[in-house]
Amino acid sequence: MTYDKTLARFGSYYHEFRRSHPGVAEDFHAAIEELLTDGGVTYDRVSTRLKEWSSLKAKARKKGPDGALLYPDPRRDIHDMIGVRITTYHSTEIPVALKVLRDSFVVHKSVDKAKETRISGGFGYGSHHLILEVDDTNEDLQDYVGMVFEVQVRTVLQHAWAEFEHDIRYKRSGIATGAADGTTGQLNPEVDRMFTLAAGLIELADQQFDQIAALKETGHPTDETVEITAETLPGVLAMLIGNRFPRPRSETYRFLEEILTVHGVTSVGALRELLDVTDIELLLKIMRYRFHPGQTRIIDDLLLKKFGQVHIDATAPKDAQPPQTKRRGQMKRKLEMMQQAHIAEQPSAISAERNTEKEQQS
C-alpha cells in the first residue's frame, strides 16, 4: 500500500508536468539539434519523447530477481521520463556528439553499451547512454533546469538493429515468451543464433562505413574565381581551413550558401578573405564558445562580425516566424558582445539608436 501511494504521487507529478509543459519534446528536440549543429556534428536525426504514463507506471513497478523494487523512488530513480535519441551516419561521429552533450549538461552517468558487448565477447546491442541534467547555463531549456533525462547515441545501423531486434526478438509471439513480471522468457535458440550472425554483419558494416568516411576525399578547386555552392562548399572549406572546425550535416551547406550569398561571398577568393585567421582567432577568444565551434557557427559569426545588423536583418528579419525570432535575439546578443570587445566592423542597431538619441538631445 505504501508503494501505491508513492506511485500515486509520482503519477500526480507526471500529469502536472505534462500539463504545464505541453511542448517538452519539441523544446528538447530544438535545443539538442542546435547544440549538435553548432558543434559541427554530422548526424542523421534527433528524436525526442515524453514517456507515456502507462509505460512509466509499468517501469516503476518492476522488480529485481530478489523481489525488491528496482525504482523505490520512481521520481528520483527513473531517468528516461524524457528521452532523446541521436543517430549518426558512422561511429566516428559519436565521440564528437558525446563531447558536445557533456560540455552542455551535467553528466550523471555515461555507459557505452557497445563496449560492454565487446568486452563480454558478444555481438548485438550497440549504443551510448547518457543520463544528463539541465543546469541554468543552458539558455534554451531554462524551463527545465534540474530535469534529468536520458540520451541514446547510435549509428543508423545500430539503431536499425535495435529496432528490429526489439520488434522481432522480444515482441513477436512464438519467438520468446514473456514472464508476468515483464522479464524476457526463453528465446528460440535458432532465432538467437541468426540474430548473433546478423549482429556480426552489422558491426562489420559499421566498421566499413568508418573506413569509407576516413578515406573519402573531395576534390579541391584552386581557382579563386570558382563559384561556391552548397555542393562545392565541403571541398572548398576543406581546402581553406582543413579539419580545424567540424563539418555540419550535408543539408546545412545550403544554409551556408544562402547566408554567404546575401553578402556577395560567392567565390573561393571571397570566402578565403572572410576566413581570415586573425578574425577567427579574435572570435575564439572573445565569444567564449561552450565547445569548439563547427564550420556553420564560425562562418555565421564571421559574417556577423563583418556585416553587423545587416547580417541579422538579412538572415533573421523582424517579421520572421520561429525559430528565426529566436535566432534574431541570439544574434543581437552576440553582436553586442562583439561591440563591447571592439571587434565588430559594423555598429549594432542598439548602438545606432543610442547615438541617434544623443544627437537629438544635443
Automatic annotation (TrEMBL):
GO terms for molecular function: kinase activity. GO terms for biological process: guanosine tetraphosphate metabolic process. It comes from the Bacteria. Residues 48-176 form the RelA/SpoT domain. InterPro entries: NT_sf, RelA_SpoT. Keywords: Kinase, Transferase. PANTHER family: GTP PYROPHOSPHATASE-RELATED, RELA_SPOT DOMAIN-CONTAINING PROTEIN. This is GTP pyrophosphokinase family protein.
